[in-house]
Design a protein that fits this description.
two-stranded antiparallel ribbon; 32% strand; four-stranded antiparallel sheet; 98 residues; alpha+beta; globular; Rad51_C; double-stranded DNA binding
Length: 98
């Protein structure tokens, strides 16, 4: 399975380079029981190292309070870890009002 995943990701990388387009990959998160007892909801991206090395920037989206959503920079070569809170409305993405 890992070999097939690596082949598919390699094809996507070639397409991105050849046509100068961004490739957006989504995947699920899975429970990480070894994530530590001080983490309230330990999760990690599925796909392991194969998927991690294929992506330049990795973001993790999750539900926040109420209608809020949180986007966390999980891994990026030129950006520090950080989070942005937003809402999805009929008018599009909106900043959360304090």
């Amino acid at each position: 399975v890992r070999q097939k995943l690596a082949q598919m990701l390699s094809r996507l990388t070639k397409i991105a380079e050849e046509f100068n387009v961004a490739v957006y990959i989504t995947n699920q998160v899975i429970a990480d029981p070894g994530g530590g007892m001080f983490i309230t909801d330990p999760k990690k991206p599925a796909g392991g190292h194969v998927l991690a090395h294929a992506a330049t920037i990795r973001l993790m989206l999750r539900k926040g309070k109420g209608e809020q959503r949180v986007c966390k920079i999980f891994d990026a070569p030129n950006l520090p870890e950080g989070e942005a809170v937003f809402q999805i409305t009929t008018g599009g993405l909106m900043d959360v009002k304090d």
